[in-house]
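Fig. S4 source data, part A: sequence.
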Amino acid sequence: MEKDRNLIDLIVDCWEGLKRLLGKLGCLLASMLRLSARCWWVVLPVVLLFLGAAFYYSRPANKTHKVNAIVRLNGPSIEMLRQVYKPLEQMPDTKAPIATETLLGLGGDVARRVHTFKTFEVIDCLNDSTADYVDYKHKRKQQDTLNVVMPDRLALQFRVRGSQECIPEVEEQLLRYLNADPQLQRAYDTYMVTLDREVEFCHTQIEKLDSLTSSFYFLNQDMAVSITRWSTGLVVGDRRIRLFLDDIYRHIAYTRFIDERKAIATAPVVIENHFVMDARPINGRLKCLIIGLLAGWIIGCILAALVDQRKAISAWLRQ
């Protein structure tokens, strides 16, 4: 009969397995160090070769930065914009110059330095129409109702190699490419008809509310009477006019919001701010040198092991 296992037994087994794994890794590291010392003439050149490659890859002219911006959609949905953006997003980096030069109309030199186009959702945590953060790591769960995906915002990203002087040109051509799409244009035209009518209605309502309240106050049709009864039997009445300022101020605030939306809605896709380059490069010098050192040491140890066991390998091959 098998013994029942509890949580303590499971934790002990996991700890024992972790210790065995760490012991094997320690033995492997010690073996690699001994092999490196014994066959240094094989390991050292490989390490230097990888360090040189990492140093060359991280040179200033080849440093790659992420460039981000948030756009506002006036009419089109997020899925409609992603369909238009997909030819750029799905193009491999090796063929990115062809896509950027053909679709965006960029020059050959700029097209070769721009690649890896991506889109990310903009999250509104408080559901107050204010962007709180961008889900760059795609960690938001679809079932999460607390973090609301903004239906009229989308974050765009691309990568640029070398200097940032070409970013304004890429921004201009990218917006031109998106706003020239017929489907986005039709959604924008439909949206503007409704938005213009809503703006007109809000301003008309302000004038009507002003006239209505003026007439209402002068006619004294709604008088609130506050009665206070004293212990002596004296009754005191207070007649006051109930003002509607709270409702009026709420409508004026909404009208201001609608006016701002109309002022921004100059095209189907409008950028909230200019594209901004991330100051930290993807292929930083220190990061590349560390990766090159580790990769060179591992590859060097593999080659050194082949050289060290060449006689055994040769005998095995002759069997």
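Fig. S4 source data, part B ends here. The longest helix spans residues 182-219.
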